[in-house]
């Protein structure tokens, strides 16, 4: 693959200046044009050590307005990053819409180096490539312009570049270990690099391989590739893909027995028992460094809040974080809709409880017309991919939907209005949503059908009796943790 790209034609200083000046002006125009759109620009600069990646990034910041660019560099993972799924550190650094993020060192660096050094098997490396493809497709589907530059140099050029910089490194060493190529692994690194590029070369997010032997050629070529990629993407920016036709969903809610109930004495006895067990399991998960992510969804007035309180009262406050999801802020709207959930994930061994979650995209945003049909249809796959990424890291995922009848919801709404200390829980929006019960019911059934997976199954909780629902949830959490930990 690396011998099938435009060969280096060294540029003289005069030739470089003649091409660079108009290129710089057009890049600035393109950058200012992006600022007026909903497209974030992500530039990945990758390649072997000694290829001039850092110099190129300096040049790009010089040619464009650095106020609209954030350059991200990645070396070793911090303890905080190691305690979360692999892609967490990159989701946190994604540029908002209209801005540019340059990634010098990226989601490619760790799997490539680990594979070169034999710390990542062939199967695991292939899996990493597939996860990267999914990540980039999700961002691109949401409007991101992803430009991936691979800078290639020969073994001789690399050796010369690294040896020339060796004295400087001794005075001001880099934060990383010595490049693995210096230990006689150039050919191995080259083979892995070709495997990496082939495994992540997609029509949606292609690689651009640049001969980096000559600095001037490298910089001009990279600038031209970036400019061309921006213009081509913006040219077709309004071409929306047709929504995928989804199969008819089974009526999962109709199968729920809403008559189940507990008397208060039995409830108190079971609550003490299962809360005690949940407390022990939460500490065992901490000792095993296994995270727990719980999702609570349900009808308005279904009792999510009271159920969550019974769960959190059983877990040491140091071990959990409750995330209450409302309408997205302007900052959150400027990102992929999953961004705000990724950044809330707690460290290994802790519990993250979501009071409403990423499922809002396929329920309220779908029914209320806040997401297009193409967006919410695509979200089913993206949600499954998110949860797969969590479970592949070792995270335990538990999802609850609390189901109640329309009559029970009406009774609870009326009770809230009658009690001064509960009136804040009922709004005009709650009453309006009741009128759309059939639409929500269809969306919920389809959500369950599309996102009920072996590793992240849905637990549909009969909620007409709050006491029964609370015990059902805590007991299910205990069983889920026991299955994962023992």
What does this structure look like?
With 486 residues, the chain is of the alpha/beta class. It has two domains: 13-235, P-loop containing nucleotide triphosphate hydrolases (Rossmann fold); 256-485, Rossmann fold (3-Layer(aba) Sandwich). It is built from 19 helices and ten strands. The strands form two sheets. Strands 2-3-1-4-5 form a five-stranded parallel sheet, sandwiched between helices. It has a five-stranded parallel sheet with strand order 7-8-6-9-10, sandwiched between helices. α1 packs parallel to α9 (215-235).
Set out the fold topology.
Elements: H1 13-34, E1 41-47, H2 53-63, E2 69-73, H3 79-82, H4 88-91, E3 100-104, H5 109-116, H6 122-141, E4 145-152, H7 155-171, H8 186-199, E5 207-211, H9 215-235, H10 264-287, E6 292-298, H11 304-312, E7 320-324, H12 330-333, H13 339-342, E8 351-355, H14 364-367, H15 373-392, E9 396-403, H16 406-418, H17 428-434, H18 437-451, E10 458-462, H19 466-485
Parallel strand pairs: 1-3, 1-4, 2-3, 4-5, 6-8, 6-9, 7-8, 9-10
Helix pairs in contact: 1-9, 5-8, 10-19, 11-19
Key features?
486 residues, alpha/beta, Rossmann fold, polyphosphate:AMP phosphotransferase activity, transferase, five-stranded parallel beta sheet, Polyphosphate:AMP phosphotransferase, 2 domains
List the secondary-structure elements in sequence, H or E: HEHEHHEHHEHHEHHEHEHHEHHEHHHEH
Integer count of domains = 2
Radius of gyration: 26 Å
Tertiary shape: elongated
Largest sheet: 5 strands, parallel
The level-1 CATH class of the largest domain: Alpha Beta
* Helix-residue proportion: 40-55%
Return residue spans where pLDDT drops below 50 for at least 5 consecutive residues.
174-182
Rounded mean pLDDT is 92
The strand line-up of the biggest sheet is 2-3-1-4-5
Number of helical runs?
19
Backbone structural class: alpha/beta
Under CATH, the homologous superfamily of the largest domain reads P-loop containing nucleotide triphosphate hydrolases
Tell me the fraction of residues in β-strands, as a range: 5-15%
- The CATH architecture of the largest domain: 3-Layer(aba) Sandwich
Q: Report the CATH topology name of the largest domain.
A: Rossmann fold
């Amino acid at each position: 693959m690396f011998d099938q790209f435009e060969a280096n034609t060294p540029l003289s200083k005069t030739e470089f200046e003649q091409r660079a000046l108009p290129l710089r002006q057009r890049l600035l125009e393109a950058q200012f044009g992006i600022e007026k759109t909903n497209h974030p620009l992500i530039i990945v600069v990758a390649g072997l050590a000694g290829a001039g990646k850092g110099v190129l990034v300096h040049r790009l910041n010089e040619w464009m307005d650095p106020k609209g660019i954030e350059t991200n560099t990645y070396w070793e993972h911090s303890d905080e990053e190691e305690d979360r799924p692999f892609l967490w550190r990159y989701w946190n650094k994604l540029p908002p819409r209209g801005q540019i993020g340059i990634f010098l060192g990226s989601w490619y660096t760790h799997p490539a180096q680990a594979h070169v050094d034999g710390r990542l098997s062939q199967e695991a490396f292939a899996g990493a490539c597939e996860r990267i493809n999914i990540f980039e497709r999700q961002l691109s589907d949401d409007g991101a312009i992803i430009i991936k530059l691979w800078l290639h140099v020969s073994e001789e050029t690399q050796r010369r570049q690294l040896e020339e910089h060796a004295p400087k490194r001794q005075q001001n060493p880099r934060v990383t270990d010595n490049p693995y190529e210096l230990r006689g692994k150039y050919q191995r690194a080259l083979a892995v690099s070709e495997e990496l590029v082939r495994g992540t070369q997609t029509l949606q997010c292609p690689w651009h391989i640049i001969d980096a032997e000559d600095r001037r050629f490298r910089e001009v070529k990279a600038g031209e590739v970036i400019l061309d990629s921006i213009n081509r993407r913006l040219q077709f920016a309004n071409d929306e893909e047709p929504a995928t036709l989804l199969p008819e969903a089974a009526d999962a809610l109709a199968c729920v027995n809403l008559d189940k109930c507990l008397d208060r004495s039995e409830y108190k006895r079971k609550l003490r028992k299962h809360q005690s067990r949940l407390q022990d399991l939460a500490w065992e998960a901490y000792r095993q460094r296994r995270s727990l992510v719980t999702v609570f969804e349900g009808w308005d007035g279904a009792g999510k809040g009271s159920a969550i309180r019974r769960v959190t009262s059983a877990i040491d406050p140091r071990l959990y974080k409750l995330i209450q999801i409302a309408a997205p802020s302007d900052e959150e709207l400027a990102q992929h809709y999953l961004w705000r959930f990724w950044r809330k994930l707690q460290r290994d061994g802790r519990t993250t409880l979501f009071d409403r979650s990423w499922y809002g995209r396929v329920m309220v945003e779908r029914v209320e017309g806040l997401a297009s049909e193409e967006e919410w249809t695509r979200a089913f796959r993206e949600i499954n991919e998110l949860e797969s990424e969590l479970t592949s890291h070792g995270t335990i995922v538990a999802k609850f939907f609390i189901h109640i009848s329309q009559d029970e919801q009406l009774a609870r709404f009326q009770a809230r209005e009658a009690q001064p200390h509960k009136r804040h829980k009922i709004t005009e929006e709650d009453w309006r949503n009741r009128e759309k019960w059939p639409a929500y019911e269809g969306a919920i059934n389809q959500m369950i059908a599309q996102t009920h997976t072996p590793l992240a199954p849905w637990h549909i909780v009969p909620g007409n009796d709050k006491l029964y629902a609370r015990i059902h949830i805590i007991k299910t959490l205990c069983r889920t943790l026991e299955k994962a930990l023992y």
